[in-house]
Amino acid sequence: NAGVTQTPKFRVLKTGQSMTLLCAQDMNHEYMYWYRQDPGMGLRLIHYSVGEGTTAKGEVPDGYNVSRLKKQNFLLGLESAAPSQTSVYFCASSYSTANGQPQHFGDGTRLSIL
Amino acid sequence: GENVEQHPSTLSVQEGDSAVIKCTYSDSASNYFPWYKQELGKRPQLIIDIRSNVGEKKDQRIAVTLNKTAKHFSLHITETQPEDSAVYFCAANKQGAQKLVFGQGTRLTINP
Q: Does residue A6 carry a pLDDT above 80?
């Protein structure tokens, strides 16, 4: 099993460009999450999904959109990239968290906005 | 909503000594508390977790303790080794919630 796979691993964008980050999991997890991690900072939740076709806002959703058309995939979109969105983006997935389940993380996408 | 505070932000210990990292949470309904280790440039990885019906859990050199009354939980690493150097994050969930709230992280450095 690959676990949680994120593509691409690195990307450099110019201000105003758009792009989509892809997260794929093969663990049949219901829940999926997108976080951003800035240097020396913790993990901040951008958006999450509790099942196919559902999405919800997290702590820092502005400037991002997400889609969960298939259970195994969770896409994060930047419509008009800004330098403030330079960060490392982590995707995670888990079984139902009703009674607490660990989240499994991908290797991250390092995104630089010039 | 839930708020998780983690201390200290940095910790330096001599190899072989013990390290303790503490987190406090605000929501008394929280019932799941995982700890993640993140090595430089890598993903966060779960190292141990504890549920609210348990006071302590051990796994070889690491242990986690939970004090529900005081709303805090701690990570204990004994006989530290250089490979323990990393950033450690605590987190808290609550029953029925769909998210984990993470602490700000502790950078642990093991000095040889």
A: yes
Backbone angles phi, psi at B84, to 5 degrees: -80, -10
pLDDT on residue B11: 98
Distance CA B22, CA B90 (A): 8
For residue A100, what pLDDT band results from cuts at 50, 70 and 90? confident
The neighbouring-strand residues paired with A48 are A33, A56
Cα–Cα distance, B73 to B20 (Å, whole number):
10
pLDDT above 70 as % of chain A: 97
Instruction: Quote the CA–CA distance of A102 and B100 in Å, as a whole number.
Output: 9
CA dihedral for A52, A25, B6, A85, sign (positive or negative): negative
Q: Do A100 and B46 touch (CB under 8 A)?
A: no
**Residue closest to B57 by CA, chosen among B65, B45, B68:** B65
Mutation choice for A interface testing from B33, B40, B43 by most A CBs within 10 A: B43
